[in-house]
Automatic annotation (TrEMBL):
InterPro entries linked: Glutamic_endopeptidase (IPR053168), Neprosin (IPR004314), Neprosin_propep (IPR025521)
Signal peptide: 1-30
UniProt xrefs under PANTHER family: OS06G0474500 PROTEIN, PROTEIN, PUTATIVE (DUF239)-RELATED-RELATED
Domain Neprosin PEP catalytic: 167-422
Basic and acidic residues bias: start-end ranges: 93-109
Stretches the record annotates as Disordered: 93-114
Taxonomy of the source species: Eukaryota, Viridiplantae, Streptophyta, Embryophyta, Tracheophyta
Protein name: Neprosin PEP catalytic domain-containing protein
Keyword Signal: yes
Keywords, alphabetical: Signal
Pfam families found in the cross-reference section: Neprosin, Neprosin_AP
Amino acid sequence: MASSSSSSSSSCSCFVVLLLVFTSFSSVLSSSISHQIPTKNQTLFHPAKELKKLKHIRNYLRKINKPPIKIIQSSDGDVIDCVLSHLQPAFDHPDLKGHSPLEPPERPRGNSNSTEEAIENFQLWSESGEFCPEGTIPIRRTTEKDIYRASSYRRYGRKPIKHVKRDSSGNGHEHAVVYVNGEQYYGAKASLNIWAPRVTDQYEFSISQIWVISGSFENDLNTIEAGWQVSPELYGDNNPRFFTYWTTDAYQATGCYNLLCSGFVQTNNRIAIGAAISPISSYRGKQFDIGLMVWKDPKHGHWWLEYGSGLLVGYWPAFLFSHLRSHASMVQFGGEVVNSRSNSGFHTGTQMGSGHFAEEGFGKASYFRNLQVVDWDNNLLPLTNLQVLADHSDCYDIRQTTNNVWGTYFYYGGPGRNVKCP
């Protein structure tokens, strides 16, 4: 009897096990089938495609994240690598291999800041007074997380191609700028104050910058750009950051932000391009601004960048460009935002500048002051024949004027979506 009972119990147990296995298999099969036949809003997961993407990303990171001789941790979470100058990404370019950074060029003559109090500006990573050693440059480390955050990993570090159209009313880019064109320009200079505008969508940004431009806006546009930007997609936060950009084919295949491709040659060990700026301006409070100057070295033809109180950051080699190899035909100053209309088709609430309109003036609106250009003989000159453009003045506007202290200057910006900007 005991034997029979044991056999019956064993058979029952086997049946239960088989039933569980079958049920589990059916569940897995059903799940597999449901993943193979996606619903309208589903996309297939392709392991091979994801592995290829991961391989591409890691190869890119190995290329741009150079081995540091010192690492500095920033209070905002950035990691700053101190990289030997001759190992920076610029020297991966075929035309720069084996080169070393050039010596500083002759600075343009004339100084609009002679009567101003120099304000030293810092970045968060160097608040403690720690900088990279001489002979190295600070590079903000790029991570896998940075690239996965981007809308397109293949175009990480580049502006969208649709950015090229100057009439931005239909492509999501809106400007409030002043500009000059029609002559030959060899540089530009201005001081602009720093804010932390609200950016309401991860794939939007808010930028305040100088553009040095030549060529057409169709497919051969050459630009050199520098200023500050808030870009959650690029940096993962809402801090205003010092940035540079260049392109020689209207943002299609050449150029990038900061040091995210070979091109810009950095020479300074105290400024990290792409790092957060500190301090920033406050509404009805203290105002902080930075001086920026881009100019063409008369001797070698390279385009140099100066930041703050005379700090040379580095240069864009002349060979990178076609039209800008000789001179610029347009210079712009001002703000730009992306309006993706992601909120049910309404205008974005992404702010430009301080987020307040130009009419509010000093301490409330964002400004550029002491606007100048560089002429063929390396002289800084005040601007004449300025033109003013606000793509949507009910969303972001601009007001330009002149006085004896700030020279040519303007207030600009706005809140984006409001009762007049639905």
